[in-house]
Amino acid sequence: MKASWDIFCSVVDNYGDIGVTWRLARQLVAEHDVAVRLWVDDLQAFVALCPEADATATQQWRQGVEVHLWPQEWEAAQVADVVIEAFACKLPEAYLLAMKARPVPALWINLEYLSAEDWVTGCHGLPSLRPDGLKRMFFFPGFEKGTGGLLREADLIARRQAFERDPQARRAFLQALGVYALDGAHLISLFAYENTGLASWLEAMAAGARPTHLLVPQGRIMGDLLRWLDVDQLPLGTVEQRGQLSVQALPFVRQEDYDRLLWSCDFNAVRGEDSFVRAQWAGRPLLWHIYQQEEDAHWIKLKAFLALYVKDLSAPAAQAFTELWLAWNAGADMAHSWNAVLEHWPEITAHSERWCLQQAMQADLAQALVLFYRNWI
After folding, report:
1. Which pLDDT tens digit goes with each residue over 269-313?
2. CA proximity to 132, closest of 186, 96, 157
3. What is d(CA 274, CA 279) in angstroms, rounded to the nearest whole number?
4. Residue tagged active-site, from 85, 273, 274, 364
5. Which pLDDT belongs to residue 14?
6. What keywords were assigned to this record (predicted)?
């Protein structure tokens, strides 16, 4: 019989949590032939990523995954063989009681947030025994051996490379979104939280030597963008021109199309965890807007990744890249660091592809989870 998996997702940060768990659920079904129930407490966020889904359904099947609305009042449900508590979302008490009563223990996994910090490899796979006898295993995605790896479908890199070899496919995809960029223009995507440093970056691009076409999917950065443009709204598809910079708003698209958008651009500004990982698989230079945490704990995570990522860059390129990321996440002036990155553009671009291929040599997150379960039983 197929192993059964329950994945619990509480939508905290718009689309990050559901983005990761929805990708994971689909991949487990498609590549590992397991039965997956995805429990989600906000179906509106799910519909944004899977437009054919029904935001009012308490249960529905989507791409082989049984998707359930996480009820406020939990009723009895059969416990799965593997239970994934995504990002410490806290399982319902009734479900925990059912886990205790299960004749054969379920594998309970706390799927943690992605981090490049040194301690991750030492904590990955460790158990935590509760006073009630239930045992929870901690599973850490990561960038190095000894972690759970990154979410990556088995054919992802091959699909991206095939897309890159087909200029007509790229052109058709962009035109379907209403994007007609000038020949020779830098194409940049921008998906970010609110950021006071945006204005300085936009001004630097507007004053640049090369045209830039900025694509902005609907999201929280839009207010800062409208203020800089000095307009009340930017209807979807409309292009606003400021110097060498063209700005265009795009609709929020499903995950598969967002991947293609990242593949189509020369540079991608992303936020959170899901789009951060997908931008790395795009093999393009990227800029990460990390989710802010209390007491500035996010800076430790950001700097840990930067230290790992820039190791193989030349010192000047590494400095330019690092300063750009630090300025962006501090909401500081970005003009100097952006222009410095442009000076090292070919090196940083080549490095982005090398990093992608190096990471793809590791087991992906879904594969690592399945192997972890097989070893556990």
Report:
1. 999 899 999 999 999 999 999 988 788 889 999 999 999 999 999
2. 96
3. 9
4. 273
5. 62
6. Elongation factor, Glycosyltransferase, Protein biosynthesis, Transferase
Burial of 287 (0-12, 13-18, 19+ CB in 10 A): buried
Q: Which residue has the tokens 């839009």?
A: 222
* pLDDT at 16 exceeding the cut of 80: no
Residue with tokens 């990955």: 124
> Is 286 buried (19+), middle (13-18) or exposed (0-12) by CB count in 10 A?
buried
Q: 226 is written with which tokens?
A: 């409208």
Tens-digit pLDDT profile for residues 112-135: 999 999 999 999 999 999 888 899
Predicted confidence (pLDDT) per residue in 323-364, tens digit: 999 999 999 999 999 999 999 999 999 999 999 999 999 999
Whether residue 17 lies in the annotated active site: yes
* Active-site residue, selected from the candidate residues 6, 17, 41, 274: 17
Are 33 and 5 within 8 A, CB to CB? no
Helix (H) or strand (E) holding 98: helix 93-101
Q: How far is CA 158 from CA 166, 265, 278, 349, 368, in A?
A: 13, 18, 14, 19, 20
The span from the CA of 287 to the CA of 269, in Å, is 4
Task: Please confirm, yes or no, whether 273 is among the known catalytic residues.
Answer: yes
Farthest CA pair distance, the chain: 68
Residue 93 structure tokens: 């008490």
CA distance 77 to 55: 21
Architecture per CATH, 156-359: 3-Layer(aba) Sandwich (3.40)
Q: Strands 212-217 and 239-242, how do they pair? A: unpaired
Would you give the DSSP letter of residue 46? H
CB 81 within 8 Å of CB 374 = no
* Helix ranges (DSSP H) in 184-252: 198-206, 222-229
Q: Which of 240, 260, 191, 246 is nearest to 219 (CA)?
A: 191
